[in-house]
Q: What sequence folds into this?
């Protein structure tokens, strides 16, 4: 009888831990999707303070139009006002959580001008997030244009 009680207790414990882990992962996924949507809003509004808060100090951004840039370069680009967005639509977002780290991938369609020239594009992107000092920060971002047919 003790063996059965032990086995049942062990099964309940394993299921409980599994459900807790799934719930925590779902919560992290929702938080990161919220941050990705806020990322877009911040670009449209030129909200430098948002990026200063969510980008780690040593973060890097890699793109086909600007190469590899530091956080300081990224913030300077936003401050410059050279990029103006008419719309920015996210799609196909997928979040993969690895404990205190996560990778978010997706696609976007952006209507924008750079220094008055239309540079609208569709891109695939990846953001790497790490929980630092109790909050999620982007440590690396990459964007690649989707070739148009």
A:
């Amino acid at each position: 009888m003790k063996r059965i009680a032990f086995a049942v207790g062990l099964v309940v414990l394993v299921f409980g831990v599994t459900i807790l882990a799934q719930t925590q992962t779902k919560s992290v996924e929702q938080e990161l999707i919220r941050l990705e949507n806020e990322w877009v809003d911040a670009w449209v509004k030129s909200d430098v303070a948002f990026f200063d808060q969510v980008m780690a100090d040593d973060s890097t951004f890699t793109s086909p139009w600007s190469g590899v840039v530091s956080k300081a370069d990224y913030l300077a680009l936003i401050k410059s006002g050279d990029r103006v967005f008419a719309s920015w639509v996210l799609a196909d977002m997928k979040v993969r959580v690895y404990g205190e780290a996560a990778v978010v991938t997706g696609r976007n369609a952006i209507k924008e001008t750079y220094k008055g020239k239309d540079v609208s594009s569709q891109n695939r992107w990846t953001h790497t997030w790490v929980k630092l000092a109790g909050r999620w920060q982007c440590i690396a971002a990459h964007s690649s244009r989707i070739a148009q047919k």
About this structure: DSSP finds three helices and seven strands in the chain. The chain has one domain: 2-145. Residues 2-45 form the longest helix (44 residues).
